[in-house]
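BUG: 3D viewer hangs when loading the predicted structure for this chain

Environment: internal workstation, default settings.
Expected: structure renders.
Actual: progress bar stalls at 90%.

Input used:
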Amino acid sequence: MLMSWPDGLGTDLHLDGRARDLLTPATPATSGAASGHAADPVVVAAATLHAVTGRERDIQTIEADPEPPGLHELVGCRAGGGLRGIIAEHLGEEIEGGTPLYLLLDDLAGATLIAGFTFFKWQDEYPEIKQRYQSAPPRINTNICSGFQEGSGALNPDGTLKGVSENTPPAPPLADPDDPVGWHELGDHPAIAMRRARRIDVWTDTDAVTINVDAMFRDTCWIPDGTETVLHEYRIFATAEAGSGTLTTAEAVPLVLPYVECPEAAPNAARLVGTTLTTLRSQVLEQLKNADCCTHLNDALRALAEVPVLATSL
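C-alpha cells produced before the viewer hung:
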C-alpha cells in the first residue's frame, strides 16, 4: 500500500494498493521432473485499489479491480476503525472469501493513520511542516499501546510525546533478485511517500496435518536523501491444525519499532494460541489491547485470519 500526496503538501492523501495470492505448486511425478520439484508459480487471486482521502481521513473516491458491488458505499466514510464495520455491512462477500481486495480495504484505516509520519522526516526541507506540528495541540497517549505504557521513556510525565522516534534504519530490499516472482511489481514512488508491505507464506507438512506460517509486516518511508527507512517491522511464525484451523503456536519477532518499550507487546502474541484462525480479526482486538498491544503487531496478527484461504489452494 503506497501512501502519497501527488498534488503536493497539504493536499489529499492517495492510497494505491496491490495484493495477490501466489501458489507455488509441486510438480507431479508424471511430468518427467523429480517429484516435489517446484513448478512455476500461479497467481490464484489478485486485486488493486486506489483511494483518495481528505484531511479528516474521509474517503473521497475509491476504485478497485475487481470492483465488487457496494464498494462505492465507502465514499464519504472516515477511514478509521469504524470503517471496518461499514466494510462488513456492504462488502461481506469479500470478507467471507478472504480476498486480496479485502486485505487492502482493511488496511485503509491503518494506512491513513500512519501516513503523515513521513512529513516528520522532511521538516528541515519544508519549514511549514515544522510549524504545523509545533502548533498542533498536545495529545495524551498514556497506555494506548505498549510503547506508550505508563512510565514509558517516550512520554512526558503528563502523557504527551517527548519527540518523534529517530529509530528508522535503512530498509533492506523486499525483492530477491534470485526470485523475480517472489514479490509483485512494487512500482515507482514520489519523493515524499510511505509504504506498507506484507508477506504471508503458508505451507503444510507432508502429512497435511499442520499449517505453517511465516509472515512479515513492514512500514517504511523515504527521507530527503532518497533512502527508504523502516518505521515498523515484525516477523511472525505460527502453526495451526489443518482440520480445525486452531492456532497451536504464535511467535512475534519485533525487528524495528519506534520506542524502547514497543517490543514488550510481542510475547503477548502467544495469548492467541487456541484461537481459530478465521476469528483472528476480532480476537486480536479483544485479547490484545491498551498497554498489552502494539497497533502494528495487531495488524500483522489480524491478517492471519485469511491463512485458511491460502491453505485451501494447497
